[in-house]
Amino acid sequence: MTNSQTLLVIDDDPLILQCMRLCLPEPDYHVVTAESAGQAISAFRSGQPDAVLLDIQLPDQSGLALIHEIRELDGRVPVILMTGHGTSETAIAAMSGGAFDYVTKPFEPDEILPVIDAALETSRMARKPAILPSEKERLSPEKPSDQMMGECPAMVEVFRSIGRVASRDTAVLILGETGTGKEVVARALYQHSSRHDHVFHAINCAAIPEALLESELFGHEKGSFTGAEQRRIGKFEICNGGTLFLDEIGDMTPVMQTKLLRVLQEKEFERVGGSKTIKTDVRIIAATNRDLDAAMADGSFRSDLFYRLNEFTISLPPLRERGQDLRKMTEHFFQLFARQLKKDFVSIAPETMQRLLGHDWPGNVRELQGIIKQTLLKASGPVILPSFLPSGFGAASPGSTAGETSSQEWQGGLVKEIHRRLAEGSFTIGSDIHDDVDRILIAEVMKSSGNNISEASNRLGISRPTLRSRINHLRIDVR
Ligand SMILES: Nc1ncnc2c1ncn2[C@@H]1O[C@H](COP(=O)(O)OP(=O)(O)OP(=O)(O)O)[C@@H](O)[C@H]1O
C-alpha cells in the first residue's frame, strides 16, 4: 500500500537529475527526468506527473514558455522553478504567471524537499477526486473504495450542502473535530466549483509561525525584514482567479486575522514592506476543528472575520454521533484495507464489533482507519478477534484498568506542568505546551519510523509538509 507520487524533473544538468533521484527515493516518490523542453512535454503527456521541478534555462526553450505550455495541458499541476542567481525577477514573473514556488541554485536538499513536498501535497488535494455518493449510491452496499460515506441525516445534509454551494463563489467555512473529513469536503468543493481548472493552494495556518504565514499569504518586498533577500509572491497573488484552502483557521493569531479580514472585505492587499495595492480574486475555503463560538466568546477569534468566512458553513458531525454509519464504515474499511494489505478477511467477531462500536473515536474517521489497519496487520486467520485490536485500544473507556492507570499517570504529569506554568504567570501556555509535546512526539515517532518522513507523517496523521515544517520550527534533531 504505497502513496507514491510522481515528480517530473526538467534540467539539462545530469547532476541535478541524479541528486533528485537520490533525495526522493522509491517507493515514496517516483522521479521522472527530462533534459529538454521537448522531452519534458512528452514525459508530461505520458507520465501524468503530480508536480514538476523545472530549470528556468533549458537548451531548446525558456522555462517560462514551458510553464505556460504545462499549464495549458493541466493547470492544476504545481510547477516549481529552479533559477540561478540574478534571475529572481524572471522567477517572480513566473510566480505571477502561476508557478507554485521557486528555489535558487545551488540549493541544499533541506531547502528544496519541503517545497517539493508542499507541491505534491497541493497536487494531491487539487487532483485526488473527492467522490460524493449520489442518492442511489448512498443506499447501495457496493461503494467505490474512496467514496465519502454517510447515510445518517447529518451526513446527508453535508452532501446536500456541498452540492448547493460548490458552484457558487461564496466563502465556505468547514467545521468539525479532527479526522471528520474536512479536507475531503474542501477538495469536493474545489473540484465541483467553476474554478476547478484554476489554481488551488492550501495552507495549514497552525503549522506556520505568524511572521512566515504573513509572507506566505501576502508575499514580501526585498529587504522588508532580515532575510528577505528577494521579493516573494504570496498565495493571494498566486491564487488570483483560483481557490485558497485555509486549514486550521482557528489557530490564526489576532494580527493575521485582521490582515485576512481586510483582504476578504476589500479584495486587495499589500506585500509585506510594500506600498503597491494589489487586487485579488480568490475563493476562500476555511476549516477548523476549534470551537469558534467559544473562541469568539473569549476574544481569541474575531467575530467580523467569522461572519465573513461564514457565508456558508458545513458542519461535519463527530463519528460517534453518526449512528449506523459507524458500523457500515467499519465493515467497509475492513474489506478495503484487507484487500490493500493482502490479508485474509471474512468476518468481524461480534465482541470485536461491540468494542469498536463502543469506542468514543476522538480522532474520528482517521482514527477508525488507523485502528482497522493496525488490527488487520496483527490478525491471523479470517475472523477478526478482539485480541487483534491494538493493545491499549479503548483503554480510557470505563471498565479497562491497566491502560487507564498509565494514561492517568501521564495526564496527571501534564496537569501538574500546566499548573506550574500558570503559577509562573505564563501567557503562552497553549503554544508552549503544544510545542513541548510535539518535540517529544515527533522525535519519538521519527525514531521509530527510521527517520522516514512519509512513514512518520502517516503515523502522526499529518501531511509531510506539516511534519517538515514542525521539525524545522521546533528545531528537532532528526539525524
Ligand atoms: N465520510 C467519510 N467516508 C469515508 N472516508 C472518510 C470520510 N470522512 C473522512 N474520511 C477519511 O478520513 C481521513 C481523514 O479525513 P480528513 O483528512 O478529511 O479529516 P480532517 O477533518 O481534515 O482532519 P484534521 O482536522 O485532522 O485535518 C481521510 O483518509 C479521509 O479520506
UniProtKB/TrEMBL annotation:
<dbReference type="InterPro" id="IPR011006">
    <property type="entry name" value="CheY-like_superfamily"/>
</dbReference>
<dbReference type="Pfam" id="PF02954">
    <property type="entry name" value="HTH_8"/>
</dbReference>
<dbReference type="InterPro" id="IPR027417">
    <property type="entry name" value="P-loop_NTPase"/>
</dbReference>
<dbReference type="GO" id="GO:0005524">
    <property type="term" value="F:ATP binding"/>
</dbReference>
<feature type="modified residue" description="4-aspartylphosphate">
    <location>
        <position position="55"/>
    </location>
</feature>
<dbReference type="InterPro" id="IPR058031">
    <property type="entry name" value="AAA_lid_NorR"/>
</dbReference>
<keyword id="KW-0963">Cytoplasm</keyword>
<keyword id="KW-0902">Two-component regulatory system</keyword>
<keyword id="KW-0238">DNA-binding</keyword>
<feature type="domain" description="Sigma-54 factor interaction">
    <location>
        <begin position="148"/>
        <end position="377"/>
    </location>
</feature>
<dbReference type="GO" id="GO:0005737">
    <property type="term" value="C:cytoplasm"/>
</dbReference>
<dbReference type="InterPro" id="IPR002078">
    <property type="entry name" value="Sigma_54_int"/>
</dbReference>
<protein>
    <recommendedName>
        <fullName>DNA-binding transcriptional regulator NtrC</fullName>
    </recommendedName>
</protein>
<dbReference type="InterPro" id="IPR001789">
    <property type="entry name" value="Sig_transdc_resp-reg_receiver"/>
</dbReference>
<dbReference type="Pfam" id="PF00158">
    <property type="entry name" value="Sigma54_activat"/>
</dbReference>
<keyword id="KW-0547">Nucleotide-binding</keyword>
<keyword id="KW-0678">Repressor</keyword>
<keyword id="KW-0067">ATP-binding</keyword>
<keyword id="KW-0535">Nitrogen fixation</keyword>
<dbReference type="Pfam" id="PF00072">
    <property type="entry name" value="Response_reg"/>
</dbReference>
<keyword id="KW-0597">Phosphoprotein</keyword>
<dbReference type="GO" id="GO:0006355">
    <property type="term" value="P:regulation of DNA-templated transcription"/>
</dbReference>
<dbReference type="InterPro" id="IPR002197">
    <property type="entry name" value="HTH_Fis"/>
</dbReference>
<keyword id="KW-0804">Transcription</keyword>
<feature type="domain" description="Response regulatory">
    <location>
        <begin position="6"/>
        <end position="120"/>
    </location>
</feature>
<dbReference type="InterPro" id="IPR003593">
    <property type="entry name" value="AAA+_ATPase"/>
</dbReference>
<dbReference type="InterPro" id="IPR009057">
    <property type="entry name" value="Homeodomain-like_sf"/>
</dbReference>
<dbReference type="GO" id="GO:0000160">
    <property type="term" value="P:phosphorelay signal transduction system"/>
</dbReference>
<keyword id="KW-0805">Transcription regulation</keyword>
<dbReference type="Pfam" id="PF25601">
    <property type="entry name" value="AAA_lid_14"/>
</dbReference>
<dbReference type="InterPro" id="IPR025662">
    <property type="entry name" value="Sigma_54_int_dom_ATP-bd_1"/>
</dbReference>
<dbReference type="GO" id="GO:0043565">
    <property type="term" value="F:sequence-specific DNA binding"/>
</dbReference>
<keyword id="KW-0010">Activator</keyword>
